[in-house]
Structure formats: structure tokens, C-alpha cells
Amino acid sequence: MNAFASTTPRRAFELYPAIDVRDGRVVRLHQGDYERETRYAPSPIELASQYAESGAGWLHLVDLDAAREGGYTLRALVREVVTHTGLNVQTGGGVRSEDDVALILDAGARRVVVGSLAVRETERVLGWIARFGADRITVALDARQDASGAWRLPTAGWTQDSGVELETLVRRFADGGLRHLLCTDIARDGMLAGPNLALYRHLSNLAPELSVQASGGVRDVDDIEGARDAGCAGAVLGKALIEGRFALEDAMRRTQRC
């Protein structure tokens, strides 16, 4: 039997169209590099409205300015998206404090995404899960596999080794009440090389109680179905979706059927 085979029963599968915002515009960064940016024509609210009209239930919204400088800046956009589209918003970038979490949720977001801080200050983030509830926090872990095969968690824009291994931190959060985990294989991010299905099968076995969101590498609907079949509870759709490599309606139809 494959060591990565998932024994987790299939659960409801969610699609999370992603919008990354920098200087008020929709952009994508190549491998997280702020010097390698692609801009897209629609405004964030126009693109969110398009996704809602296509049947999306969720939006994954990233504040790239805050991710670099701190101080989440998209609360007004969250309110506008929720009011005008009805989308459930999962959002993060620059979340540094409990007050940040409270303000983002007060703006109408359903979930706040916490990234590097979850690696650096795990106990603090576990406290937020206890205060706000397991359904209001998504922990986002960006992982890179080293030469020995271990999954490491770099921070500071993927430039510093935190010394923390993915499996250790995932189990710590699962034991501490986390429900939603977003995991990105750094090597696949923005590369249209396909998601790392072996990684997601591994996570499904390691912590079957978590709802794991696949992120990075999705090229087409087959990749999304692969993530679902690997045990993921959802997939974040970035570059391939915004560039029209597949239709959101098709992805929803194929991944949400039995």
C-alpha cells in the first residue's frame, strides 16, 4: 500500500478563487518576488463580482502590501465584497495581532489567514483560535522540501529557515484545535506545474481531522480533482483561473459532484 494513500472519507469540497491585491490592483507575484509582478485589468471588486456570478461561494483575498509591511489594509474592500457579492471571504496578509483579527472579522470576513506568525509564535495563534473559534482562523503554511526530504517552513518571504518542520507544526495546531489549514509547496507556487498531491495525501494521513486547502501549482480542473481525491477539503485557485486556463463553472461542476 502506498505510504501516502489517504484513508480520510471524502468531505465537502470548496473552491477558493484568489485575488492578490497590491496598491489597489489585482496582481500575481512570481514565486513571491515583489520585483516580478504581473498586473491584471479588472479591479478587485470587479473580479470578485465575476467569481460570484460564476457561482463561487468563497473568495481568498490577500493583502500583499500588508504582507510585506504589516497592518492589514483591505477592510473596506472586504466590506464591499461581502455587501455587493455575498461571497464568504477568507483573507490575510500582515496579520500581526489579536486586534488585527478582530478588525478583519468585524469588516465581514468569515476567516482570517495567519501565515508566518503561526510559525514564529505558535502559542499566540493557538490563543486566537481559542478566542475567535476554530472556524474563524486559517493557518497558512508555506513549505519547502530539503535535500533530505524533510518539509521545512521558511519565513521572511521564504528567505529564512525557521528551524521548524511542517509535520511537527501541523500536529501541534491540530492538537490545539485548528480546523482549517492552507498549505503551499513553495516550489509549485505560481509555476503551473501541478499541485503536490503526495504532500496533500501525507497531510491527510498526518492530521485527518483538519480541512486542508491545496495551494500552488493548479493548472486545470484535473489538478483540482486530484487535490480533492488526495484528501483536501478545498483548493485555492490563482494564476490559472485568472488567466482563463479553465472556467470556474467547469471546476465547480466537476469537483462538487459525487
Write up what this structure looks like.
There is one protein chain. This protein is of the alpha/beta class. The chain has a single domain (14-255), classed as TIM Barrel (Alpha-Beta Barrel). It is built from eleven helices and twelve strands. The chain has helices at 44-53, 64-69, 75-85, 98-106, 116-120, 122-132, 166-175, 197-206, 221-229, 239-242, 248-255, and strands spanning 14-22, 25-30, 33-39, 58-63, 88-92, 111-114, 137-145, 151-155, 160-165, 180-185, 211-215, 234-237. Helix 8 links the parallel strand 10 (180-185) and strand 11. Helix 1 (44-53) packs parallel to helix 3 (75-85) and helix 9 (221-229) runs parallel beside helix 11. The longest helix is centred in the N-terminal third of the chain and has 11 residues, at 75-85. This is 1-(5-phosphoribosyl)-5-[(5-phosphoribosylamino)methylideneamino] imidazole-4-carboxamide isomerase. It catalyses: 1-(5-phospho-beta-D-ribosyl)-5-[(5-phospho-beta-D-ribosylamino)methylideneamino]imidazole-4-carboxamide = 5-[(5-phospho-1-deoxy-D-ribulos-1-ylimino)methylamino]-1-(5-phospho-beta-D-ribosyl)imidazole-4-carboxamide.
